[in-house]
Amino acid sequence: MSVETQKETLGFQTEVKQLLHLMIHSLYSNKEIFLRELISNASDAVDKLRFEALSKPELLEGGAELKIRVSFDKDAKTVTIEDNGIGMSREDAITHLGTIAKSGTADFMKNLSGDQKKDSHLIGQFGVGFYSAFIVADQVEVFSRRAGLDASEGVHWSSKGEGEFEIATIDKADRGTRIVLHLKSGEDEFADGWRLRNIVKKYSDHIALPIELPKEQAAAEGEEAPAQEWEVVNRASALWTRPRTEIKDEEYQEFYKHIGHDYENPLSWSHNKVEGKLEYSSLLYVPARAPFDLYQREAPKGLKLYVQRVFVMDQAESFLPLYLRFIKGVVDSNDLSLNVSREILQKDPIIDSMKSALTKRVLDMLEKLAKNEPEQYKGFWKNFGQVMKEGPAEDFANKEKIAGLLRFASTHEEGGEQVVSLAEYLARAKEGQDKIYYLTGETYAQVKNSPHLEVFRKKGIEVLLLTDRIDEWLMSYLNEFDGKSFVDVARGDLDLGNLDSEEEKKEAEEVAKAKEGLVERIKASLGDAVSEVRVSHRLTDSPAILAIGEADLGMQMRQILEASGQKVPDSKPIFEFNPAHPLIEKLDGEQSEERFGDLSHILFDQAALAAGDSLKDPAAYVRRLNKLLVELSV
Predict the structure, then answer these.
(1) Predicted structure pTM score
(2) The CATH fold of domain 239-381
């Protein structure tokens, strides 16, 4: 072995120490995943070399045959994984093997469930795959040299997983990385050709790169052992380039786990080859669960991009809109330049055409899932529903299609589950109903019991109940569906159109005219607290409610703006009262102006509380209520 120089001992980042302790002492139920992770890393290293060599062919150093080799030594109890990819410099090794970027460990720890098998499969998702080596090894050595560096600039990294690692400079003739695992006592099963072959076939058969293992051969008695021969044990062809008819579901599922760093099978996938004006292949997956960074819109996301089967970019975000950022997959184009960069991708008209087609393909896949597998779609919606609600604002061209995929809670369903589609809502609509009615609020209990729903219950009209923080913003972009416009039942002057008979409309007009004096009296009492006072057509049981002006912000939008530090425009609610309610009848007959004022303000504050709003002056409300209670008890 080459002489080591510049040898030093360094400590792991604190998070790595935590992770190593976890790997060594806890995640042992599915030990074989270490090989999947190390082969996956080796595949990435080869992909990176292949891409960099497009502009710097000298990086190949005359060796263009790219591959991964897995070997073992029964006597020494070692397993070795070697690639001739991009390799690491000394600085790379310290950075990549001694630290974890972006608090990977903190997120990893937070997502642990206590189920060893599931937890061990989380490893790849958080970019900590290398450390899985310590599940089976009590010492790990890495020999590496970055392509393009001098042979004397190789690096030897070594650790026993006990809080520190050694690093030294060595001579290494070949570029790439060799990882040697010194197996723990009791892990000898992995120093076996048959066992390693099975693991490779199980997890890495789809990798588009030859994975070689030593060929099983025995020397004849009295002869020297034959020279080492290698054989490829995986298919080594890009899965997406093969005909769909030749690919088993299990192969699609394993490929997803590789690119998605996931342990669960995907909910659905779509594999297509486009020929004609544009030529490209795509393989798109809908995950079964949300990644930990789903709501970090600035987090890296996107498809793996290949050009003529050459890897170009790991997270090309230009091929799908942001609301579909959870989609995993591969796109391989024949029409893009191999030297594409993120900047070029954003300006290329070919990308716009591909993005449009791929977006439609994903939405079609989701429609199919919703139609054929409603229970699975229910699970999808729980995980990704709030992200899908970003769609109508971002993707005007597909607004109707996205709207058909949305799911809501409604007065038709108990329990508040978001399971009602707009198509189902319209199928149940009353005869003559030409609107889709909805109500937004903070919680399901609040909207379900809202006085705004009283007239709808009386008439048996279904109302959608929207309680996600994003809902009011969503509805500002979702104007209609299937030709029917949306109506917020808490906004403006409610008009039920054909759902009210002529007699009901005439009666409402007469009541409003008869109560004009009471309207003026309440308006004078409440003053600047309200923009308007009127007789309500919404109420059957409650004395009063607050409605929102047609152009005013609702409570959800006000809270979002306030939380982000933005100035919220001033607006005042509309006070509506139920003339048939005993409290309103008592108010109408009240002679004392002071008592009338107290009662009016109490009703106003109660209406605000029923709407989920906070009181401007809680102390005044309590004072007025106590005064009233004392009067009643005398």
Answers:
(1) 0.71
(2) Ribosomal Protein S5; domain 2 (3.30.230)
Query: DSSP code of 157?
Result: E
Query: What amino acid occupies position 505?
Result: K
Distance CA 248, CA 245 (A): 8
Reduce the DSSP state of residue 569 to 3 states and report it: coil
Residues contacting 587, CB < 8 A, separation 6+ = 518, 522, 596, 599, 600, 603
Q: pLDDT tens, 289-326?
A: 887 777 776 776 789 888 777 777 777 888 999 999 99
Q: Starting at the edge strand that comes first in sequence, how are the strands of the sheet with 532-535 ordered?
A: 532-535, 574-577, 544-547
Q: Which residues of 490-511 are buried (b: 16+ CB within 10 A; e: fewer)?
A: bbeebebeebbeeeeeeeeeee
Instruction: Give a three-class secondary structure readout of 230-249.
Output: EEECCCCCCHHHCCHHHCCH
Distance CA 454, CA 20 (A): 59
SS3 labels along 426-465: HHCCCCCCCEEEEEECCCHHHHHCCHHHHHHHHHCCCCEE
Kindly state the tokens that stand for 402: 């996205």
Q: How far apart are CA 450 and CA 542, in angstroms?
A: 10
- With H, G, I as helix, E, B as strand and everything else as coil, classify residue 606: helix
Residues comprising the chain, all counted: 634
CA distance 486 to 478: 8
In 3D, which of 319, 320, 321, 317 has the Cα closest to residue 333?
Answer: 319
Below-70 pLDDT ranges, the chain: 1-2, 19, 22-29, 99-128, 217-226, 297, 300, 337-347, 551, 554-564, 568-569, 633-634
- Asked if residues 525 and 596 have their Cβ atoms less than 8 Å apart, the reply is yes
Q: By three-state DSSP, how is residue 93 classified? A: helix
Q: Please write the tens of the pLDDT for every residue from 195-219.
A: 999 998 887 877 888 999 998 766 5
Domain ranges of the chain: 5-218+227-232, 239-381, 400-498, 502-633
Contact between residue 411 and residue 466 where contact means Cβ atoms under 8 Å apart: no
In 441-573, the DSSP E strands lie at 464-466, 480-481, 484-488, 532-535, 544-547
CATH ID of 502-633, from 1.10.10.10, 1.10.3720.10, 1.20.120.790, 3.40.50.2300: 1.20.120.790
Of 327, 436, 325, residue with least CA distance to 390? 325
Q: Give Cα 134 to chain centroid, integer Å.
A: 30
What are the tokens at 282? 């795509």
Burial class (CB in 10 A: 0-12, 13-18, 19+), 241: middle
**Is residue 83 classed as helix, strand or coil in its secondary structure?**
strand
Chain mean position to CA 509: 51
State the Rg of the chain over Cα: 33
What is the bridge-based pairing of β-strands 532-535 and 574-577? parallel
Query: Which of 3.40.50.800, 3.40.50.11260, 3.40.50.1950, 3.40.47.10 is the CATH number of 400-498?
Result: 3.40.50.11260
Residues 6+ apart with CB under 8 A from 233: 197, 200, 201, 211, 212, 213
In what side-by-side order are the strands of the sheet with 280-286? 268-274, 280-286, 328-333, 303-307, 310-316
Phi-psi region of 267 (alpha: psi -120 to 50; beta: other; left: phi over 0): alpha
